[in-house]
Amino acid sequence: MAGRFSRRRMLTVGGAGVAGAVAAGGAGAWARGLMAEEQHGSEAGGAVAFLGEHQAGITTPAQDRLHFVAFDVTTDKRADLVDLLREWTLAAARLTAGHDAGPVGAVNGSPEAPPDDTGEALGLPPSGLTLTVGFGPTLFRDAGGRDRFGIADRKPAALADLPHFRGDALDPATGGGDICVQACAHDPQVAVHAIRNLARIGFGAVSMRWSQLGFGRTSSTSRAQATPRNLFGFKDGTANLKAEDTAALRQHLWVQAGDGPAWMTGGTYLVTRKIRMMIETWDRTSLAEQEAIVGRTKGTGAPLGKRGEFDELNLAATGADGKQVIPADSHVRLAHPDTNGGARLLRRGYNFVDGSDGLGRLGAGLFFMAYQRDPRRQFVPIQTSLARNDAMNEYLRHVSSGLYACPPGVRTADDFWGRALFSS
Amino acid sequence: MAGRFSRRRMLTVGGAGVAGAVAAGGAGAWARGLMAEEQHGSEAGGAVAFLGEHQAGITTPAQDRLHFVAFDVTTDKRADLVDLLREWTLAAARLTAGHDAGPVGAVNGSPEAPPDDTGEALGLPPSGLTLTVGFGPTLFRDAGGRDRFGIADRKPAALADLPHFRGDALDPATGGGDICVQACAHDPQVAVHAIRNLARIGFGAVSMRWSQLGFGRTSSTSRAQATPRNLFGFKDGTANLKAEDTAALRQHLWVQAGDGPAWMTGGTYLVTRKIRMMIETWDRTSLAEQEAIVGRTKGTGAPLGKRGEFDELNLAATGADGKQVIPADSHVRLAHPDTNGGARLLRRGYNFVDGSDGLGRLGAGLFFMAYQRDPRRQFVPIQTSLARNDAMNEYLRHVSSGLYACPPGVRTADDFWGRALFSS
C-alpha cells in the first residue's frame, strides 16, 4: 500500500475533526494479513474469497439479495480517486470476510470521532457477501467532454454508450454513473451495510447517484442452483451461462488479451436495466397467452412442445396447424443464441418491488444485470431484436440503464480496484 | 363457507372472461381440510399456524422480511367487501401453509383463463409466512364522512386519528388506507408473492394505496431471538414486549373484553410510522454523541453506566460531574415505560432502503410498527414526548403514518377476517 493511503482521510474531509491518520505501513500490514486468509463460501453464512483472477460476484453462485449502487465522482483530483479506490479495496476485503469496515470505536481510541463502521452488521456472519466494481463511460470522459482523471485514452471501445432501444423510457437520474458497486449477499442487512460503509468512506470524493435493492431468484449462475422464478412467475435463466461452462465463459464473459486496453483483460462488461413489469396486467392474461409470450410452460419451465426444463428448444418445430410451436415473437426464441449469431450473456438479475406506483399497482419488476465480453456484440444486438419484436414488451418498460467496465480481480494485497487503469 | 363465496369472482370482475365459478361447497371443503392441518413453524422454512385466538404475525418471532401494504376499498357494496374478506382469508390460509393461492392452471382446466396463482413462489417452502390484517379509520367512515359499509357505529374509540406530532412531515399518499395487510416471512419472494396474490384476488374491490418492503433486525419479539440492530447501528428492542410475557401482553397488547366493541376483543391496534433516518449525518457523528443520544453503548447495547445489554436502566444515576448518566433527552429514557406511566408497546419494525433520494443519500430508515391495546394510552403519549424532546429527532423524519384495528384471529374454518365486525 502506498504512503498516501489513510483510512480516515475521507472522514476528516467530512469535517468531523482532526482524527489521526493511520500510518500507511500499518494499514498495509493489517490488510495483508486479512487478504491472505483462506476463505470458503460453501455454506450460506460463509465468506467468498475476495482475491482472484476475476472479481467475485459474477460467476459466484447468485446470492439471494442485492444492493446495487452507482456513484458519481465529485472530486476532480486523480490522486483522490486513486486513494478512494485503494481504501474501498481494503474495506471490501474486510467486509467480504465478515469483518467490520473498521473499529466501531474510533481508530485512535477516542470516542470523540465517528466510528469506522456503522455497526448494523455487528454479529452477523459474512453471508456470502461479494462486492463487485465497475467504471462507467463518464469516468473516462464526463458529460461535458472533460478527461478529469487523465484516462480518456484508456477507455475501451466496448464501453460505447448503449443506443436508444425502441420503447425505452429511461430516467437518466436512476441510471448511469461514474462507478458502480454491486453488493450481493444472502442477508440484505449485510449487503446494505457494505454499500453504506463504502458510501461513508467515499464521503467528499463520491456522491451516491442511484441505488437499487433486489431479492433473488431471477437467474442461477451455477449448475448447482435450481432455476429461480421471476415476477411473471416463470423460471428464468434456464439457458444462462453458468460458472461451470469454462470455455463458454472465456468466449462470452471474460475480456481476453487483445480485446482492448490491457487493463481490462480478465474483466467483463456489465449492463444493467431496470425493467418495470406490468404484473397486474400480466396476472389477468390467460395461461395460454402467458406461455406463448414466454415460449415455455409455466409449471415445469419446459420449452413449448417439450417436456423437461432443460430440453433443447426446437425453434423449427411446427404444430398440426402449421404454426410454429415456439411463436416467432416469443421471448425465448428472440433471446436464444441461435437467433443472435451465438451471442450469450451471463445474467445475474434480481426481482425488485419499490412500493407502489401511486396508481394502485406494485412498483415491481426485474433489475436485469448481464455480464459479457463485449456489449456491442452481445447485449446490444439481442436487445435491439427484443425491443422490436418481443411479445413480452406489452408488459415491460425499461426505466433505467447502466453500462460499466468491470476490471479484473484484485490479485494480491498490494493490488486495488482499477490499479492497472491508473498505473502510468 | 357461505354460498356467496366464489374464488374466481374477482377475476371475472376483471373482465378476464367467463371462467366457471367454483361451487361454494367445494371450496369450503377444500379450505376446511387445509385449515385443519397441523402446522409448526419452528424451522426457518416451516409454516406458522394460521388459525388461533389472535392473529399470527404479532407475537410470532419476528421474521426477517416484510411486505406491508395498505388498500383502499373501491367498491361501495358491503356484500362485495365481505366476500373479499372471506376470499382473502381462504387465500391467506393456503399461502401461509405454503400452498399456492390457487392452481397455476385454471380451476376448470382451461388455459384460456388466467392462473389462480401468479407462480413466483412455486417450489418455495412456507418460509414462516404470516399474513396479518387491520382496518383503518376510513373503512368505518371515509374522508367524506360516509358510512359506506354500515359499520360506523362499530368503530372503536381507540381507533381515533393520531394527532399531529411535532416535526411530522407526512405524505398522506403513502400512509393510512382502509385495510392493511402485513406479510412477514423469512424469504422476501414469499412475502411479495402473498401480497401480490391478495391484490390480484382483490382486483375490482380494492386498490393498492401504498406498500413498503423491509428487511429484518429491528425488533425481536421473543426471548429466543437475539436483539437485532437498526440502521443507526444500535441494538433495538432490548426492552420490547416479548411473546413470553403473557401477563404483560394482556395488559399492553391484546384488547380485552369491555375495552370497546366486542368484535375487537382479542385483537390489537397497529401504528405504522415510516421514519427516514439521516444516516449520512449520523455516520459523521462521534461515537460518544451517538451513545448519548441513544442512551446505550453501541457495542454491547448496555444502558449507559451499566455493563450488560439486559441490565436495568438506572434513570436516576448521576456521574461524577453531577449530570445524569442517561441524558434527559436520550431516546431510551424518553421511550422508557417509567417515563410514560408504564405504557409499553410490542414493536415489530423493519429496516428499509428505498434506493437513494436524489441528493446523494440513501433513502433509508425504519419502518416502525407497534402493536398495542390502545394507542390513545400508549403510542400517542410516548410519541408526543419523543417528538418534543428526543435528541434523536435531529436525525429522523417521520414521513408516513398509519393506524389500524387488527381483529382477533380466525378461529375456525368458517371464520374469516373481520367476521364479527360484519355480523348483524
Automatic annotation (TrEMBL), chains A, B:
What is the cofactor note? Binds 1 heme b (iron(II)-protoporphyrin IX) group non-covalently per subunit.
Q: Which residues form the Dyp-type peroxidase C-terminal domain?
A: 227-410
GO MF annotations in UniProt: ferrochelatase activity; heme binding; metal ion binding; peroxidase activity
Q: Could you tell me which residues belong to the region Disordered? A: 102-122
Where's it mainly located? other
**Protein name as it appears in the record:** Deferrochelatase
Query: What biological-process GO terms show up in the record?
Result: iron import into cell
